[in-house]
What does this fold into?
Amino acid sequence: MWRIVYALVGGAILMAVVIAGFLYYELSGDDPETFFDNPVKQFKYGSTGGDLLAGLPAGIFKAMPMLCRDYLPGKGWESLGFIFEEGMDRPVGTSRRHSLGFDRIALNCAACHVGTYRDVPQSPRRVVTGMPSHRVDLARFTKFVTQCVLDGRFNPWQVIEAAEQTGEHYSAFQRLLIKYAVVPAMREAVLLVRDRFRFLDREVESGPGRFDTFNPAKALLNWPFELLPPREAVGIVDFPSLWLQGPREELHMHLHWDGNNDSVEERNRSASFGSGAVPTTLDRQSLKFIADWLISTANRPPKYPFPIDAARAEAGKPLYARYCASCHGASGSDFSGGPSGHIGQVEPIDRIRTDPCRLDNYTHSLSAEQGNLYAAYPSERFSHFRKTNGYANLPLDGIWLRGPYLHNGSVPTIRDLLESADRRPKSFYRGYDVIDQRKLGFVSGVAEENGVKFFRYETQCVDAACAGEPNAENRHDDNVCVPGKWAGNSNRGHEGADYGTEISAEQKDAIVEYLKTF
Amino acid sequence: MALRSRWKRWTATVLVLVVLVAAAGGALVWSKFFKSDKQQLSDDPVARFAYGSLDGELLAGIPYPIFMILPRVFPDLVAKYATEGYGPQKPSYGGYGAFGLAWQEGERLPFGLSIKRLGYERVTINCALCHTASYRLSAEDQPRFAVGGPAHTLNLQGLLRFLIAASHDERFSATRLIPEISVHFPLDWLDWGDYATVLIPATRTALHLVEGQLGWMNEKPAWGPGRDDAFNLPKYILTQTPWDDTTGNTDFPAVWRLGTRKGQLYHSAGEAKSLYAVVATSAIGIGSLPTGGFVERNQRLEDFIARAEPPKFPRPIDAGLADRGEALYRARCAECHADGEKRTGTAIPLNELGTDPEHIRGWNQANADRMNVVVLTLGAANADVEGAQGGYVARPLVGLWLLGPYLHNGSVPTLWDLLSPADKRPGVFYRGYDVVDFDHVGFVSTGNEAEANGFRFDTGIRGNGNGGHLYGTDLSDSDKSALIEFLKKL
It folds into this structure.
């Protein structure tokens, strides 16, 4: 009798140990895919640690564009602007990491900082690391994932079937996990993100190459967006380039469009939140490796690959020196600005007069609270964030690849930027990647190519139908963000005699030509 | 025999095991909950005043990770309690900033909050919470901070109500708080257990206890930002005196240059006769026990506030006008407010002064005696606190431009208003908005911005009376301007 009890108890204990061991073996691993022999590849495909929190099982990530294809503007992740390279089964800007029983995929830095260009429509796309991902539409990505995961098709059976159609094979245990953990957890996560990212519904559509960058920080802190002052609602900015971070760091340049932080290291970790890398999941080894490469001299923009009219560029040089150099540096690699230079410093809003919404979106209260984000790690605590009163003067390295211009990407080409605001295009198309060799930037008049529609950017109301909307002209006369449908999209500012918008057309062309050497 | 010795051996083994397990458990509990670390803080006296611990962690410490994430779990409660009593347009920020705490960028917590490890990191408050002024020079300026100045933006009552309301909310649970904490703090399974079974329930219970001690607040006029019920707090809580119907809402004073006040009376109504008494009773009042470094720390604090200086008036001063004003000051104000004059630092009798009497009614000699007994019982040197002295203390004027609203109850928004007859002073204004009013001297208290960001202060409410102190109200407008020009220099 007792023997049977002992045997049963012993058996139960043994079984529990075996099950615990199995679960531990299956779920405990943490194995990021790394490319430590190749910094560029690590930047494009390495992990920030965000995949530990936000990573989707690889099969599901690959299956989603098929499973929910009607929610996408075209075919595959490419239709949201993601770039696929030879030999990789996932787009640039994604990392892969084995944790919690799956290979999981999440976005990384390169999602927003690797772009493409073409010489002419027929030529192949060239992928440039560190260039703004001007074709990637993160807002639509967010929307697509939300729609797909909350769709009826996103049930365990269809998810597993679709994932296995991409070549993935799941064990019985993994199927169990997908059914009882992955799918429910993804729905929970998407609901949470949809709620926290509700600021997206309160601002103009960002379109490709742009995203709201500090409202997500408020979302992390769960601020009540509805109760914040209206002037603080919109924070959409263009993705910046990431070249030549070393000189920027050495010169203590103010980073982010409003110059709210002068530490490259803090900026990197702050941006990593966007990939899901919170303090407890941050992959410090990978990020350090990437950061070292970012500040190295190897991280520089490619040279302008098209012909440059040497004589005209030469004529542009003194004009540039006169109108641009003290704010933007002597050249594309020499960031000194002479005795009165203030490169990388903040230009007060009442001088630069560009769209004030992004500036108003970042507040003293937010900068103070950011000191808390790395609270548990004294040596990593953010201590450089400051509220500023304008936008930072940026060096112009690789400027030919950084269109559209200004912090909100509201001016399609450099040549347009040299006109006063009333002569700049009121609307244009973004996301097309053929270089505009005459005006410098990307060709901005193409609405559609081979069935792919491009995003129409409106700086204000442009037809009679919307004339009755509040602030239809998108004016911010007091340099304070005025709410309205187009708030954040104004193409005003950076104009007047000091900014070179009053010189002759010939002189403007000469400056454009000279900027091609940057 | 053999059986007995075997039993003995068993018993001994079991006993040893029990002792070992208990010791290990005890060591674990000690290191998890009570092991104290020296605070990581620079030696800078300002930093120590701003963020230094008063060693109140044992009684009054909230675990830092819990404290930090509360606003983001309860943004609705932040919005409710940070805006209650304010103008209808009051925007609500998430986070503790919503309660008007002065928060320097790059710091872990606002001025007046200390983090110190006692087992785990715990947040306590210190002097700087109510004695750091936050101000801006214009609506587009960013906050500036004057350590030692009155925290006129701090909505202490709203903050307390928020914490209490959160502790009653079903979201104040391990299920909801731990995931939020684990985003920022690495938690192992042991921590997970601590939070779920000890720290979160204990914090909740402690906040319920606080609520019990503060119940009287709900029957009395609102404090509003920059004020608290200065002597009812210790009366009801420290000395456990039965609640009565007094109301003593008092402006937070500045603690600048107190070294010049030896021999004078302290507090609004002269309740203390020495800086020692002020510091020691205030420290005890916020949970600091008279053990360990109590005496030395209080001495350091006394030294600091004896010499702390206000920032200078940040705009040009018309020297000629100010000179004319100085003569008026000498003639009309100096007798009570200038250093070394005979009435400076004394209590001016209420029947002469005529300001609101409520504060005085709340604290008599019996209350003071009870307080002295508590202080002695806890083991500190006698503070020799006294009952209110039948009037309000005429203080030396230090950093006057940052001390608005004026009078002990903060019932008069600007110096210009204070120089106006009582019936010309605003009956309703908005306080807690932080933009300096350079013309009238004080803070902007009317207009859209003040209404959108300030607390609606009604002088008709009990304890908020704006009468009295009619000195100088008979001067001509040009004399008043001259006098104010001089007062900017103080």
Observations:
- Residues 259 and 392 of chain A are 5 Å apart (CA to CA).
- The first strand of chain A starts at residue 30 and ends at 32.
- Chain A has 19 helices and 14 strands.
- The interface with chain B takes residues 218, 220-224, 227-229, 278-280, 363-365, 367-369, 371-376, 378, 381-387, 389 of chain A (CB under 8 Å).
